[in-house]
Write a structure and sequence with these properties.
mainly alpha, 14 helices, globular
Length: about 450
Amino acid sequence: MDELSRLRVVLAGRDFRVLVAARFASQVAEGAFLASVVDTVVFSPESQSTVRGFAVATVLTLLPFSLLEPVAGVLVDRYPRRPFLVALPLLRAGAAVMALPGIGALAAVYAGTLLVFSMNRLFTATAGAVIPRVVPSGMAPGRGEGGSRTPAASGLLFTANMVAAVVGTIALFGGVLAGGLVAGAGGTGAVVVFTGAVWAAAAMLAARLSNPLLPERPRVASFAGQLLETVTDLGDGFRRIGRTPEALAPLLTVAAGQFLQVLVIAAALVVIKEDLGGGVLTFSGLVAAGGVGVFVGFLTAGAMRSRLSSPRLIGAAFVISAVALLPAAFVTLDTVTLTAGAVLLGASYGWTRVPVDTLAQQAVPDRFRGRVMTAIDLAFNTARVAAAVAAVVVVPWLGPQVTFVTLAVLFLLWAPVVPLWLRHLHVADAPADGESPGAHPVAPRE
């Protein structure tokens, strides 16, 4: 089955289309709200430290849920997932009101911001966990003799992840651009009104899912029993990841890639604000350029996968990330080189995220997917927080240009890690640990 045929099959699924539409609306609102936060803590006032403001924005948006995410993954695995997808956008709309300046104390503004981004990460992780459940049922299981996943089903899941990632990323980057424009025209209040309306639309879309997305195992009745099983499930989830290379390698790859990319963003912000005299609109334009690159990366990921295995595609993405930094590192630091680098870095992210999600989803049975996808999201978040904090020291010490050179070298050093680690994936399929051959498909040996 070629890529176009797989795309037709995937898009034939009504629930898949509904899920993607809900994710689109959710991430448009997230991007707009993010632009408002960046405007407040990075570019206003102009005298404040650029990298410190960026670190504050990153901690506000990512750290809170990073602390709660492992437990959230257990909840996603133990409770029906459709209610999560319906309730979370509505809760974010309410929390966003707390972030309005003048509504309440500064603590309430920060609390509202923290809640908005924490619940968004839970929404994204839940959406990622259910993708294998909403791929058209006639093709999704894709098991050959003995229960192993067939190449056709592997390709369908890859295509489904590609579509979801393309739509979500376009929405996020488009939302950042829209948020910059709305914030410039009407201030934070206008952004909150805009995001509230879009999140309400996301909730209405998610409510149209026909599949209730029930968990595989019913929860126990008593609260004490639920609490004990939550702790047990959390430990089981981390042990499963630790002994599953196809899940652990993607997790560490996401962490490494995001750590390096956030340092790139911090250095670019210094150039935009302190060298080019730009503001949130310049930053939003650069983010939009990155979004174009991500779109191109996602669109070409399917074609590249027909030539490269998923691990090698991830390695190639890290090489592209290094190449993206060369103009800014060795030519000149201006809007043109930063924009070109943003496009290439976006493309490299597209080549990384789709195979990462697909490898992890196929490596474990459905009852572990919530924990595995939230663990990957946890790696994504904590790496970005660590990089933002490191940028406070690294970028002023090295300067933007030397920072770009150093990061290009580090991207190249990571490029061969995943292909070498997962070089066994070309071997025939095998059941997951502890699973009967007919119970759960596992990652294909590409």
